[in-house]
What we know:
By secondary structure, the chain is α/β, with parallel strands linked by helices. The protein has one domain: Rossmann fold, CATH 3.40.50. It has six helices and seven strands; from the N terminus they run βαβββαββαβααα.
Amino acid sequence: MTADLPGEAGELVLLVGLGNPGPRYAGNRHNVGFMVADELAARMGGKFKVHKGGAEVVEGRLAGRRVVLAKPRSFMNLSGGPVAGTAKFFKLDPGAVVVVHDELDLPFGTVKLKLGGGDNGHNGLRSITKSLGTKDYYRVRFGIGRPPGRADPADFVLKDFSTVERKELAFELDRCADAVEALIGQGLLAAQNAFHTP
């Protein structure tokens, strides 16, 4: 085991996909965290169930680790409560939390991983940082690109992917799920080396 793994060796890891609940938002760019979580749940062979921590969860194994996969049941800007509540229920420190989210400042499909940092205007991350009381949790960032022209970013993230993007989306989500598995199985540096494009 490497020193830059989420959590202690052998410890449970909480993987959180961010999004907005309900069919109205299901295909939105802001919901790529949910989409990656769904892919990971399929790999685990599990189904999400409502949990008292405020999220839907699946428990199982990925990349040789015990994991809890979670999708907050709140709206994006209130994600912190369910994330902190689920972490507390499973007695996990923030260092064992991995959050998968959309990122405006990365081109579509780009995957970047990091530990800590700011929220870059992302209300879901801002809420999680406030509720956990620290910025020191892992993030897997999925690029959705900037809106064209003078379009409002707040509107852009709540629109579905374009026809062109949808042709590549399944492949990119699969790759992002691979990056999550690399992070929890091999550590941050190995995952960055494998998935960060030059």
